[in-house]
TrEMBL record:
A family per Pfam: adh_short
Alphabetical UniProt keywords: Oxidoreductase
Gene Ontology molecular functions: oxidoreductase activity
Name used for this protein in its record: Uncharacterized protein
Gene3D superfamilies listed in its UniProt record: NAD(P)-binding Rossmann-like Domain (3.40.50.720)
Keyword Cell membrane: no
Entry keyword tRNA-binding: no
Family of this protein: Belongs to the short-chain dehydrogenases/reductases (SDR) family.
Species: Periconia digitata
Highest taxon listed in the record's lineage: Eukaryota
Length: 330
């Protein structure tokens, strides 16, 4: 449960910040995937009004991150920009080394917001992983792992991982997570018939953009649950968040007419409404007792059965360390 049962789909960022007026003051806050007119930019602008000690903005494109940083009109807030590619392990390692050097003894809140969606053709990262998996999941896990000692050193560290209702489309495909091509999959790894029907997606074992996206978001949810379990004896925890359907640059890979068709049939949110659930996850003290939870519309919500399977979460945790070449620190 959250502290405010009256919060919902229409709750905006200002309402959440007013409910937790001391949640950000004096803290070190890090936001990934920052670009104009996106959730990252809206988060940065809202967080900056609350007197953080340090605001770290990250992204892949200098012009985009710098534009957001320069547009924040709170001169007393220290802002640092770090550029890196969330799909590249080498880039992540270099960036996290830099962040660990200047961020001080602790990092209090991390918003893992960077992501990609519905890349039309199968594309591999520099490390040879399918791009949704590399950016939305493996990069997120490695990035978090590399700064985790700083988060655990906070008096109330909070990791907020942006996921999606799109997770209902696909379980994690341990047999073919890279979409290399198989003729069949075990029953518990096949795309969800119900989830695919909901979004009008054809069932296929090959590369289908929404299925690849869905798998990466299921991975994010399972990882968040396992990470929170590992952190239960510390001052930190992790929460996964579904922001809602918002007209941001995340939809850039899809044809404009398809995007408009989807938007016409879905409940849309403003950017401020979109980040409200992220802020609840980060600032509500009650969420320390709900580590690993999935939030939607500012409240704890349920996920697909395959996205809360403890055996799958444990298996994925071990696989992730192997794929990312990292020894997880919890």
């Amino acid at each position: 449960m959250t502290s405010h049962s009256g919060f919902g789909a229409k709750t905006d960022a200002n309402e959440v910040l007013e409910a937790f007026p001391h949640g950000v003051k004096g803290k070190v806050v890090l936001i990934t995937g920052v670009s104009p007119n996106g959730l990252g930019a809206q988060l940065a602008e809202s967080i900056a009004t609350q007197s953080p000690k340090l605001l770290i903005l990250t992204g892949r494109t200098a012009s985009k991150v710098e534009a957001v940083a320069q547009g924040i009109n709170t001169p007393d807030v220290e802002i640092r920009v770090v550029l890196f590619d969330m799909s590249s392990f080498a880039s992540i390692s270099k960036a996290t080394e830099e962040i660990n050097e200047f961020s001080g003894p602790s990092i209090d809140i991390v918003f893992n917001n960077a992501g990609v969606m519905n890349i039309p053709e199968r594309k591999l990262s520099v490390d040879r992983f399918e791009m949704h998996l590399a950016t939305n999941y493996l990069g997120l896990a490695l990035f978090t792992n590399n700064i985790l000692p700083k988060i655990k050193n906070s008096e109330a560290g909070r990791i907020v991982n942006v996921v999606s209702i799109g997770h209902i489309i696909s379980p994690f495909r341990f047999s073919d997570y890279n979409f290399d091509g198989v003729e069949t999959l075990p029953d518990d790894e096949q795309p969800s018939k119900e989830g695919c029907a909901m979004f009008g997606i054809p069932i296929s074992f090959g590369y289908v953009p929404p299925i690849a996206y869905g798998q990466s978001k299921t991975a994010g949810i399972l990882y968040t649950q396992k990470l929170a379990e590992k952190l239960k004896d510390s001052n930190a925890t992790a929460i996964s968040v579904m922001p809602g359907v918002i007209a941001t640059d995340l939809w850039r890979e899809m044809p404009a007419d398809e995007v408009q068709g989807l938007f016409s049939g879905l409940p849309m949110k403003s950017l401020s409404q979109g980040i409200s659930t992220l802020l609840v996850a980060a600032l509500d003290p009650k969420m320390k007792d709900n580590g690993g939870a999935y939030l939607a519309d500012c409240q704890v919500s349920d996920v697909a059965p395959f996205a809360k399977d403890k055996a799958a979460a444990e298996r994925l945790w071990r696989l992730t360390g192997k794929l990312a070449g990292a020894t997880f620190m919890v």
